[in-house]
C-alpha cells in the first residue's frame, strides 16, 4: 500500500465517537487503555449509550482509572450497568468501594494479577469484544503509536473483535513494539485534548533521606527500575551524580525523564537494549511527553516482556526500587491492602522484586517511610494485612532510619533488623509483639 492508500483507509474509518461505539453489543466484554491511554470521547459515548438504555450492560476490564473513566463508565449513574473489573485500584475506585461498604451493593471487582500476566489474560482467558484506546497520529506507513501505553494494550488491541482508536496529536509517538496499523482498526475518532499529567512528585524529607541511603547501593552503569511518588523522586534526585545508568522499568516517570535530560541515564552499559530507555507505561507532564515524542531512544514493549522475570534477570547490575504500604517482622511486604480493602494492587512490584534478585549483582530494594498517617502508624508491623512480596524474595529494606538486607537472615535476625530501622517511637511496641510470638 502507498501512503495515499493508507490516508484513504484512514478517512474511510474516520467517524464520530457515537458512531464508532454504536456496534458494541449488549453484554459485550470491553477493555480500554490504562491511565493516560484512556480515550475520553469514546468512553463518554459508551456511557451515553448505557445512560439511554441503548446499551443494556457491559463487562469491563481496566487498570488505573483516571478522570475520563471516572466520569463515564464508572460514574454513579452508569456503573450499575457495568460489571466492572479492575486490575489496580486507583482514586475513583476508592470512592466506589466506599459506596459498596455503605450500601452493601457490589459495584466493583478486583482481579489479583501481576502486571506481567495481564496480557496473557487477554490471550487465553478474557474473550474481548471491544478495546478502546488513545493513540498518536498515523505515520506515513499507516501506523499509530500507543505512546504512553503499551502495557496490555498492544495485546488486547490484537485479541479483540473490535479495535477503536481515539487519535490525539498530543500522544507521543514511541518506538519499540508500540505500533498499531490502520488496517487493524475498526473505527477512528479524533480528539486532540491535553493528555492527563501525573505531575512531578516533590521528594519528602523522608524520601530524600531514603534516597541518600539507596544511591550508594546503585553502581554507575546499573539498570534501574523506579516507581512514582515522593520516595522514588527522592531516590532519583540522589542519583544525579551517577553516570551511564540505564532504564528497564514498568513505569517511566518525569523523574526519570529529568535524569535522561541531565545525561545521568544513557543506557550505554545496559545488557539488553543498550542505549534504549525501555518501559511499558508512562506517566508524565506535557514536557516529558514532548521529550518522548519521536525520540528513538525510547522503546515500549508489552508488560509481558518488560515485567518478565526472565528478561529482568538478564540485566547485569539491575537495581529495583519499590515502595510499599507496610512490611512485617517476617519480611513480608504489603504494597496493596489497607484495613479490610484493596487499596491499589500488586501491579508489577513482585515481577521486579523477583527479577532483580536473580540478576547478576542485582539488588531488590523496598524503600518505605517508617511511619504513615502523619507519624501515627508504623509501616513496620507485626503481621501484614496482605502479602504482595513473599518473605523469601525480599532483600533490601530501606527506611529513613537505615538499610538492612534480609537475605539469609533467620526470622529472629530479620525481626531485630527491621525493628532497628523502624521509627524509634514504635520500637518497644514491635519488640513486645516479637517476644509475644517468640520471634526473638
TrEMBL record:
Pfam families documented for this protein: AcetylCoA_hyd_C, AcetylCoA_hydro
Domain Acetyl-CoA hydrolase/transferase C-terminal: 284-434
Keywords on record: Transferase
Transmembrane portions of the chain: none
A GO molecular-function descriptor: transferase activity
Residues covered by the Acetyl-CoA hydrolase/transferase N-terminal domain: 10-195
Domain of life (superkingdom): Bacteria
Protein name: 4-hydroxybutyrate--acetyl-CoA CoA transferase
Taxonomy of the source species: Bacteria, Pseudomonadati, Pseudomonadota, Alphaproteobacteria, Hyphomicrobiales
Amino acid at each position: 500500500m502507498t501512503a495515499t492508500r493508507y490516508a484513504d483507509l484512514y478517512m474511510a474509518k474516520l467517524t464520530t465517537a457515537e458512531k464508532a461505539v454504536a456496534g458494541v453489543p449488549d453484554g459485550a466484554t470491553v477493555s480500554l487503555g490504562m491511565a493516560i491511554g484512556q480515550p475520553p470521547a469514546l468512553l463518554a459515548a459508551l456511557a451515553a449509550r448505557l445512560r439511554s438504555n441503548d446499551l443494556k450492560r457491559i463487562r469491563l476490564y481496566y487498570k488505573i482509572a483516571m478522570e475520563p473513566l471516572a466520569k463515564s463508565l464508572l460514574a454513579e449513574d452508569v456503573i450499575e450497568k457495568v460489571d466492572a473489573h479492575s486490575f489496580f485500584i486507583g482514586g475513583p475506585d476508592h470512592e466506589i468501594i466506599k459506596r459498596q461498604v455503605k450500601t452493601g451493593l457490589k459495584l466493583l471487582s478486583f482481579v489479583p494479577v501481576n502486571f506481567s500476566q495481564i496480557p496473557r489474560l487477554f490471550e487465553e482467558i478474557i474473550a474481548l469484544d471491544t478495546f478502546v484506546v488513545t493513540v498518536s497520529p498515523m505515520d506515513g506507513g499507516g501506523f499509530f503509536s500507543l505512546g504512553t501505553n503499551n502495557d496490555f494494550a498492544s495485546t488486547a488491541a490484537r485479541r479483540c473483535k473490535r479495535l477503536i482508536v481515539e487519535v490525539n496529536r498530543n500522544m507521543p509517538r514511541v518506538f519499540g513494539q508500540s505500533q498499531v496499523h490502520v488496517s487493524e482498526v475498526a473505527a477512528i475518532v479524533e480528539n486532540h485534548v491535553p493528555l492527563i499529567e501525573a505531575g512531578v512528585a516533590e521528594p519528602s524529607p523522608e524520601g530524600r533521606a531514603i534516597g541518600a541511603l539507596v544511591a550508594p547501593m546503585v553502581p554507575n552503569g546499573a539498570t534501574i527500575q523506579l516507581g512514582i511518588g515522593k520516595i522514588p523522586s527522592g531516590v532519583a534526585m540522589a542519583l544525579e551524580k551517577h553516570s551511564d545508568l540505564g532504564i528497564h522499568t514498568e513505569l517511566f516517570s518525569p523523574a526519570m525523564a529529568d535524569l535522561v535530560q541531565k545525561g545521568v541515564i544513557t543506557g550505554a552499559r545496559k545488557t539488553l537494549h543498550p542505549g534504549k530507555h525501555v518501559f511499558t507505561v508512562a506517566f508524565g507532564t506535557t514536557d516529558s511527553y514532548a521529550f518522548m515524542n519521536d525520540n528513538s531512544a525510547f522503546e515500549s514493549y508489552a508488560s509481558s516482556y518488560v515485567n518478565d522475570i526472565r528478561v529482568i534477570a538478564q540485566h547485569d547490575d539491575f537495581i529495583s526500587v519499590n515502595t510499599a504500604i507496610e512490611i512485617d517482622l517476617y519480611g513480608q511486604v504489603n504494597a496493596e491492602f489497607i484495613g479490610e480493602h484493596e487499596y491499589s494492587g500488586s501491579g508489577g512490584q513482585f515481577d521486579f522484586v523477583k527479577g532483580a534478585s536473580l540478576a547478576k549483582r542485582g539488588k531488590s530494594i523496598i524503600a518505605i517511610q517508617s511511619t504513615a498517617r502523619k507519624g501515627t502508624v508504623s509501616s513496620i508491623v507485626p503481621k501484614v494485612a496482605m502479602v504482595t512480596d513473599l518473605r523469601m524474595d525480599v532483600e533490601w529494606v530501606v527506611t529513613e532510619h537505615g538499610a538492612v538486607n534480609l537475605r539469609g537472615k533467620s526470622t529472629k535476625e530479620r525481626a531485630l533488623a527491621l525493628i532497628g530501622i523502624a521509627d524509634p517511637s514504635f520500637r518497644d511496641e514491635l519488640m513486645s509483639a516479637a517476644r509475644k510470638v517468640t520471634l526473638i
